[in-house]
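Researcher: Checking consistency across runs. Here is Probable GTP-binding protein EngB again:
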Amino acid sequence: MTTLPFPIAEEPDPQALEQGRLLFAGETEFVKGVVAMSGLPDPDRMEVCFAGRSNVGKSSLINALTGMKALARASNTPGRTQEINFFTAGESHYLVDLPGYGYANAPVAVVEKWQRLLKKYLSGRQTLRRAFVLIDARHGVKKVDDEILSLLDSAAVTFQVVLTKADKVKEKERARILDQVRAALSKHPAAYPEIVVTSSEKGWGIPTLRAIIATLE
């Protein structure tokens, strides 16, 4: 059987781990929520963005990365937050929290407006170095995820999949989901060839993800 690409990211070397620790040991602050391209902050630092369907654990992941429990607030109503939220990480990075997608209750006009803004942001932000697409380890890649992956392909934005809630899945089931995710990613030219497996609750993969962000060029 041919081994599929997209291995799990190995633990970074000590220097990269320390770079990641230092980046996120600095002050992290909410800058602003943006609803139009005109509102974007100046592109004066490196950016990474986080995308994922509603309830994938995006707020929990951002809070785990920064060590700040209430930095990114999870809405009680999935899909309520329609802004692109910018946070600083140290003096050098923006962390960009994209609105959750795949929610059923938002009006069509609202969804279309958000999709237009998202496309403009992804294709027009020169300081954006990587998108992290969060996939729930219990469910794998769904159709709505494929839509965002195709959007990232067309915007020529490198994206890396981060499996969330890995602690909620038994090891055998996790292996099956990983195979499904790898098969889905093989269709997307913009996919970065490593998967990060995380649990915000247990802290799994958080130092690795910090190091990846800190060492992007």
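Researcher: Does this match what you'd expect to see?
Model: One thing to look at in this run: The two ends are 35 Å apart (CA to CA).
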